[in-house]
Predict the 3D structure of the following.
Amino acid sequence: MAPHTTYSRWSSLSSRIALLIAGLLVLSALITTAYSASTAHSAAAASSQDSMITSHESTGVLVQQAYTDQLRFRYQALAERKSRLKDIATPLIAGLEKLHGEELSGALTTAQAKTAGIALVQSVIYGNNDYFFAYDPAGTAIAHPDKKFRGKNLFDLQDANGLYVVRELLKIGKSTAGDGFLSYSWVRLNANKASPKLAYVVKFKPWDWVVGTGVYIDDIDAAAAAQLEQTKKALSQSFAQTDAIGNTLLFVLDSAGKVIVAPADHKLTALQTTDWGRGVAAALVARAPKVDGTIAQAELPAAFAGASEKWNVAISSFKSLGWTLVSAVPRAKIDAPGNALALQQALLSLFVLVLGLLIGLLSSRHIVQPVETMTHAALALEANHFDPAHLDDAAARKDEMGVLARAFQRMGTEIVQRETSLREQVQKLSVMIDHNKAEEEASAITESDYFKELAQRAAAIRNNYSDEHSAGDALDPAVPSGT
């Protein structure tokens, strides 16, 4: 009997197939998980970044709308003031035209008419100490309620902003239209501080005068400023809601880096009170795009807004307001959706891996089990105790393994039958070979010279013995002849 073949558990075919399936599944799971997690993380991060930009753009629209409303308010208020100035100037110009008519009719001399005209200009006071004035082509104040200016040449006079006021008024008088408006800074009567003023001037051609009047518009500026403060409060509330819903911190800096609008629940005092904060604010203003509506992106270091983490920011500027709008989102919040998706993808891949391993192991067991059965049958055949019935389950399969098992079953049965028949034939042949061998050995002995010599000697002895008995019988009458 041949020795039984043994092998280790991990060298079996089923174990190798299981390990191969497990290895392929693990490798596939690792690659798929890494790719899917990276893709999901990038997509989610990009989506969060896009949400921040969208929120920033929407807020920018609100800011622009607020500024537009303020401009509209100021424009409408100034338009009303301009219309009022024209209405106020019309009677005065009519009075000058009347004096000029009297000059033409001879009722008044030119000097008398002009003197009366100067008195008329200086006598009209209305509103909040508002008045009229008149300049000759050289820029001399020929009529002015403020005595310090009367008769003086004010051609080179500048306002608080460096504007040559009289020069500009004379330009308007020389224009084709002959009238127009000018905004500048001027000191009120009996006051020391300059205030914004709107003037309307018209050319009185008969005497070559530039006659005008003006009203101070600091009340319009105050109303616009009050409206802007209301706008800031509304934006602050809107910023707080955006922060609560979209995790986006919105705030507005002025040109000096000062926070002028912040969410209602955030004071952002660090940007005002710390060197680091002031540096960050200055850097944000410096990074703001030069063109309104353009958005720049940047990354702020840790410790911003009281948190020890990095922040992604979007920056846009409103040059007309001198504002810089900033949207800031912690990097962790941008990465959070991606991390969550990556974790979900990893868990899903792990589940698929475990399920695949179970299915792979069961499938490999189902596939390899007939091979193991035939392996044991082959070993049994080798050990001369093969039983075809052990292959009945494998032979009942409908696949290639069943075909192989049935073929092996038939082959094994035939081999066993042949071996049995061969053993019987060998046994018979052995008996015949032993008989023939005995005959051949006996023949070899009888045919040998030694045996022939012995035979001759035996024959001679028999002959001699026979002769001796014959002679004795002849001598002994009692022995019958031929005995």
Residues 73-223 form a domain with the Beta-Lactamase fold (CATH 3.30.450.20). The longest helix spans residues 13-105. The chain has a mean pLDDT of 79. The two ends are 67 Å apart (CA to CA).
